[in-house]
Amino acid sequence: AIVNGVKYEDTSKLTMPNSKLYAKARLSPLSLTYYGLCMHNGSYTVKLHFAEIIFTNDRTYRSLGKRKFNVFIQGRMVLEDFDIEQSAGGAGKLVIKTFTAYVTNHTLKIQFYWAGRGTTGIPYRGFYGPLISAISVTPNFQIPLAVEPPQTG
């Protein structure tokens, strides 16, 4: 990616399993919101997959920032001042946070908000907000069939 005339490449040399899953991420200066629509009501396991791939601490000016943000699932704060690098034990390392969410109106809502702390100007404004690599959502119940199978016999 080229931002303000500076070319950014993934130099973290990710070595974890499924590294391609973490080589790119969604990033926002302020907030990201994800919806799961038309879901069955019930309990779900939500896994949030993170790896800090922007602030790599490779001793260059543009890599020394700190990212902190809050995460809400169904309106409830589940992570406060979350720092990916600190939680994972370093830049370029994965961390997966697992939560239980309850869907009651057929909609799952996951929100990521910049916490107003951490770096605000390195390398450029807007690089410090929430970052997410992947989200997985698995029902904690058997999904009902939409149509009853034909009876035999």
UniProtKB/TrEMBL annotation:
Domain spans labelled Malectin: 14-135
A Pfam family recorded for this sequence: Malectin
TM region positions: none
Alphabetical list of InterPro entries matching this protein: Galactose-bd-like_sf, Malectin_dom
Name this protein carries in UniProt: Malectin domain-containing protein
Species the sequence originates in: Aegilops tauschii subsp. strangulata (Goatgrass)
